[in-house]
Amino acid sequence: MKLWEPSPQEIKASALTQLMNVVRSQTGTSIDSYSDLHRWSIENPGLFWSQVWDDAAIVGEKGSQYYKPGKDFMNAQFFLDARINLAENLLAKGKDADTAIVSILEDGTRSEITWAQLRESVAAVASALRAEGVVPGDRVVAWVPNVTETLIYALGAISIGAVVSTASPDFAPSAVVDRFGQIEPKFLLASSSYFYAGKEFDCIPRLKEIQASLPTLVKTILIADQHDLFTTFDQWIAPHRGKPLTFLRLPFNHPAFVLFSSGTTGKPKCIIHSGAGILLKGAAEHIYHLGIKPGDKAFYFTTCGWMMWNWLTCVLQHGVTIVLYDGSPMYPTSMRVFDLAESEELTFLGVSAKFIDSSHKEGISPIKNHALRNLRTIASTGSVLSPESFDYIYSDVKKDVHLVSFSGGTDICGCFLIGIPTLPVYRGELQGPALGMATDVFDSSGKSADLDVKGELVCTVPFPSKPLGFWNDPADELYRSAYYEGFPGVWTHGDFASKSATGGFTLYGRSDATLNSKGVRIGTAEIYRVVETFPQIQESLAVSQDWDGDTRVLLFITLKSGSHLDETLTAEIKKALRTQASPRHVPEKIIAAPELPRTKSNKLVELAVGDIVNGREVRNTDALANPQALNWFKDLPQLQTD
């Protein structure tokens, strides 16, 4: 069912149409449709990404070697002789007096910073870091709310070649140390407190624990008005204000960010990302697929623990004003995000699929009482956007808006599937593959699946934002096993999907053991580490269940002899997960099971249970030591109710 389509004028004026015209004139290639353009972009990766560089007016030395295939997907290289700095590009285009960042806190506090002020503050951070001995390749980390200081700190570090990692303050100390401890940071930025759902949370006791567990730290800086124990951010950079803004241009593959996997099978994997790679990947998405341009105001509801924070930061490269928000998206009322969209006159609004679903269930109808005249694009990611949520956007939010449901991940800091502003939006479908991304669906034999046949989402051609590798994985063993073992030579992403006759894709959720809780991917190991400290619990196993147009987390436990799962124990488990991990790690249901399935090497098998509870065929029972244990999970009455 078609829900929206662009006007002929919008199609003609789009950056996609302009790109088609350029490619036709430069190559003589017959390109008459998006599918033609997409095919050209994946058949000619060097030419395509070179064109992105030009269209985005990337600042740096482009060089002449745009792409080298290498011996396999992992070893393919882009812009082999380029020199570039991510921060330089993010700060290059905004006019001094224009607003670069608007920051809004849950309590209503609003602040702005101009491009001139942003550049001056970034220069001060860079000077302060240099004075403390930070050099290219050193890691600096932040356990912080989504506020302007966080972004200034990150850009200052990247400008001198340091590597940045961030986490949100709702992560418990153990979860923070599991992440940051692996990369041995020199610097930590933290906040004295943050607000969520009307409550203030004091970060200082947990900060002391985190600081004590990171022995490589040289210094901790605090976002606060003043504090007796820590140097505040303003105090730290004050002596360096007025220093010149300079940038260290580095090879294309120099790392800028370490993002973290969800910790499914142990500590979160540290995914190393090239600053240039995510800059270029973001540019293609922003310009061609989302129509972002100077003068726009872009917002994505995110924390600093989600890759959408990095993605939104990269929108600065277009001279666009970005809007940050820290707090609950539904406090003090469920209209909070739509109030913000109206008051800030947003052109681009990004949220999670879970938020859209929750808004629908709340029965709110912004179309009746909000003037969203400037809003051109609403984007959704984090989990599958249900067909009913597609309907809701057009019936209750805005009729003449481009709804973009996109899918990608932390792994690539970008999208495999995204919006196409020259094509219609169909109910329940992601419009198509992103340019430069050879996205497909493979069946179990490793062949491109037929239309409407579910299979694994894959990518068959390298792209610039593929990870440089994993931290502490010198032989790339973890990296290779994470993405390239499902189908040799092909990126296998871990999503169930199918292709449709419209050229779009439908997603059905994760095909691996990563959980999706309230629109945020989390790892099972982070749950187990908390749950299995309870003396009554023998083992635990968590899976996602497709439920009510979204997903919910189920926790199965086996109990020690003489123990029972009652309301008290259930409440204690949920409280422990909320305080020791995060609210997102709390399962919707906790169920006692007689036995959990395991492999012959004694590893618990989340995938098999996930398949059972979602009505899918179990993929490899031969590997199980006790396949009969799966029978108990079939048609459980507890899984049929809220």
TrEMBL record:
PANTHER family: ACETOACETYL-COA SYNTHETASE. InterPro entries: Acac_CoA_synth (IPR005914), ACAS_N (IPR032387), AMP-bd_C (IPR025110), AMP-bd_C_sf (IPR045851), AMP-binding_CS (IPR020845), AMP-dep_synth/lig_dom (IPR000873), ANL_N_sf (IPR042099). Residues 34-89 form the Acetyl-coenzyme A synthetase N-terminal domain. GO terms for biological process: lipid metabolic process. Pfam families: ACAS_N, AMP-binding, AMP-binding_C. It comes from freshwater metagenome. Belongs to the ATP-dependent AMP-binding enzyme family. Keywords: ATP-binding, Ligase, Nucleotide-binding. This is Unannotated protein. One of its GO terms (molecular function) is ATP binding. Residues 97-459 form the AMP-dependent synthetase/ligase domain. Residues 533-603 form the AMP-binding enzyme C-terminal domain.
